[in-house]
Write a structure and sequence with these properties.
alpha/beta, six-stranded parallel beta sheet, 14 helices
Length: 372
Amino acid sequence: MKVQDFVKILGADFYTGVPDSLLKAFCYYLFNTYGVDPKHHVMAANEGNCAALAAGYHLATGKVPVVYMQNSGEGNIVNPAASLLNDKVYGIPVIFVVGWRGEPGVHDEPQHIYQGQITCSLLDELDIANTVVSADTTPAELELKMQEYRKLLDNGKDVAFVIRKGALSYDGTCEFRNDYTMKREEIIQHIVKYTGDDPVISTTGKASRELFETREAAGQGHQYDFLTVGSMGHCSSIALGVAEFQPDRKVWCIDGDGAVLMHMGAMPVIADCHPKNLVHIVINNGSYETVGGEPTVLADINIADIAKDCGYDEAVRVETPEDLDIALQKAKETDALTLIEVMSSIGARADLGRPTTTAMENKENFMEYLRR
């Protein structure tokens, strides 16, 4: 189905969400139509943030908003869906558009498999009526379903369309870039020159894939690295836990701007715990690159300044390989909670691979290495 038909049938004029690769056609259409416009289209920090923003829109206008997300974001909407939107509370109608990663029977990455199995049942538990949209769903069929859903929405209930891979099409495209020159993979190659045999915890998306391939290219083992292939936004908290209970080791966290944004509350918690053996590196390309390249709001915000205000001992922003090396060397030698924000270009190799070890193997190898 063409995304234009899908949007027309939804009949909304306000959209908020977190981008998803399965919803790329939908996201690109919204970006090309509205850009980032607080009156029509907001890419928010996380899906719960989106649900609350959508509630505010409805309270102010009486209209029905749309919240879009990957199905991994369902966990972030449980609280607002159950205690804010539900018709037993405030009865605030919302249309959810959910990309179905890990659909049973469709090959996907390990972090999506269980989430895919429970996608529709989670919506059922939240009393959100839902229907699956496939590539062969016609506009007429969707319009009939939407007529049914409008009655539910009029009664303060929420509804959802679960979007299968390839269900929506769009002829347009978007190209996102910035003015920074260091590539993320190059940055990671610099980082591993300094980490030695220290533990490294890396964030979800292409950063972990590039860390894995950097080790492969250098002939190094993978036991040093915990690759956080899912659970976006929680990499730094995992690193905090490792640092607190491995106090004699320097612990390195490779994070991303979109992940930091999703659960930014982790930063003041890290600062309050104050592990002096933790180096928190945020690679900031101002983009949700893994799912399509849409901009994050951290593109024009200095994360290092935020870290200083939170209480990190050291925090610096770097833009060149030379300054990166200086910051990494200092972090390696200094007994201090440190954040290094590295400004990065957008883009990755077209032939970038994926880890060849399973998530369980990664965990077991990492834990065995820490025990030694």
